[in-house]
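Okay, can you check this protein?
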Amino acid sequence: MSDEDVRRLLCVEEPPIGWLLLDNPRRRNAISLSMWDGLLAGLETLAANPAIRVVVLAGADGKHFCAGGDISEFSERLREMENAPADGLKRLRTIDKPVIAMIEGYCLGGGMALAASCDLRIASETARLGIPAAKRGLSYDYSMMRAVVDLVGVSRTKLIMFTARQFSAASALDMGLVDEVVPAADLRDHVIALADEIAGNAPLSVSASKFIINEVAKDAGDEAACQARLMACVNSADYREATQSFMEKRAPVFTGS
């Protein structure tokens, strides 16, 4: 198998950042069944490493994020391709660490579902985003559609799904599909700076905020669980460190405990 024939998801640990890299260069990083499995495995690896405080999901080639599901598998494994995303998308939303999607080039179909399931989406100004399911005789399942609806609302999701358009990064920013748009040459440095900024904060606080925000977004969130996460922060060593460092006029050193 040549390097151009690979279909894999790479997990790279560079504390405080953990990278999950979609690597299917021949198909613009379209995600295959094995890559969905790799996503789950990579998320578990990064979740278990306390030195990793932020996860970045990106294309490995520096050209494209993800052009959708790998259609070379559709004819023989369509049922599996339909069912494979649910667990991976759920884990992106529930991992305690914040996940940033670094979007360049194509972010289409399943790639859009991946990005929508991350906590933040930073796009290159040359990125193209959309869901071409209506041009393929398909739709999204519940978990994939919910990720987009939660992000941009019902009406915008219908516009995306009904038209099957590709949207520019500027249009995606306007409708809320992405959070920031930066020049292509600055994208990686910008994302690393953002990740470092987040990683400098108290990990328990960041993870509690992610959990509580996700609960608030539900129709009936678990208020008691949210209160428990808040109290874990209040009782943490990091909370005491924040107070002590403020009194001593120095930068806090958070340990996640």
